[in-house]
Each structure stands twice: as C-alpha cells, then as structure tokens.
C-alpha cells in the first residue's frame, strides 16, 4: 500500500517509505512520489538543488541522504515548507523559478504567481554549489546555460517539448552529450502531453 493516514488525521498522508505529506487541493497537482528519478547515488556531501520542488517529494527524500539541499518552487512554497517541517528534514526553500532573469507568470493547478526568474548559476550560488541537480520545471530547463552545469556531477531532469516547453536548447544538449554519460527514459511515471522523457546523466570522468 502506498498511502496511509498519518497521525490519525484524514488530512495527512504517509508514503510507502514513511515520508509524510499534508494534503493539498487536487487542483494543485501535488506530486508525492519520485519513481521516475534515480536518487540512490546522492552522497552525504553532495549539494543538491531541486528545481520545481512541488510539495517536496524529491527534496525531502534527498535530505535523508544529503546534508545540503536547496528546493526551488514558485507556486506551492507554503505546502512545501509545511512538508519539510513535518518530516524534520533540513531543506532550504526558495520561492522562485528557473529562467533568464525575466519576470514570468507561472500557473500550477488553480493558482498563478508572478516571479522573477533566476539562472541555475544563481541558484547554485545560493546553495553553495550544485553536485546533484533535479529539475522538473515545465520547459524552463531549456533556459539552462551550459556553463552553469560545470561541476554538476549528476542530473535528473524532466525534458519537455511543445506545447509545454521549447524551443529545445541544442547547445545544452550538446554540452550534456559531450560531458555526461546519459540515458533518457521515454516513458515517465505518468503520461503528460509535452513530456519528452526523463534524463539521467552522470558526468564523465575528467569532464
């Protein structure tokens, strides 16, 4: 069984691995599982940056393995902070979004927010580096500058195509192809229009 009510409350659920979540409205499209992402090789000393943290499914589990986790979420920041506290994990939460510094309106579920975006390099600066990048940001991944991946050992990233994201950043793909061993799972854990697949990448030795 994946779920059970926690603390005797119908509003709190626990996942199969004991991670606890407060419920959020269905319209918010909360994500509780991370089955499509590979996390077993997160190291205690890794600086983990989670772009598009949603309600914390990835960053809370990452914080069980790493002492340094930064989670970036533009819309569900309040629920994310509550879930981080409920699990007693040490995660730094930033309410923001990935981009080129422009101001963007972002809608998730039935909520729309206006945020100033930041580059991956800027978020890595806030975190004190980035060894392990998880990115699920509905097409904004194509704004990543290749140079901002310098020093990133591992990437777990959902890739999007129109109508969700695009155009595809060929320079980014070329950089990943040169510097990483990678595979793309073409069938994510859920079928969503515009999802190309999930990238799993490990930096090549000496690259």
Mean pLDDT: 88
Tell me the span between the first and last alpha carbons. Answer: 42 Å
List SSEs in N-to-C order: EEEEHEHEEEEHEEHEE
Shape: globular
| CATH architecture descriptor | 3-Layer(aba) Sandwich
Determine and state the CATH class.
Answer: Alpha Beta
CA radius of gyration is 16 Å
The order of strands across the largest sheet is: 6-5-4-10-11-13-12
Strand content: 25-35%
Name of the CATH superfamily:
Vaccinia Virus protein VP39
Total number of domains: 1
Main sheet properties: 7 strands, mixed
> How does the helix and strand content classify structurally?
alpha/beta
Q: Number of DSSP strands?
A: 13
Low-confidence stretches are: 1-8
Output the CATH topology.
Rossmann fold
The number of helices is: 4
Helix % is: 10-25%
How does this structure look, described?
This protein has 207 residues and is of the alpha/beta class. It has a single domain, classed as Rossmann fold. It has four helices and 13 strands. It has helices at 57-62, 77-86, 120-127, 170-179, and strands at 4-6, 9-14, 20-22, 47-51, 68-72, 92-94, 97-98, 103-108, 111-118, 132-135, 154-160, 180-185, 195-203. The strands form three sheets. A seven-stranded mixed beta sheet has the order 6-5-4-10-11-13-12, with helices on both faces. Helix 2 (77-86) links the parallel strand 5 and strand 6. The longest helix is centred in the middle third of the chain and has 10 residues, at 77-86. The protein is globular, with a radius of gyration of 16 Å.
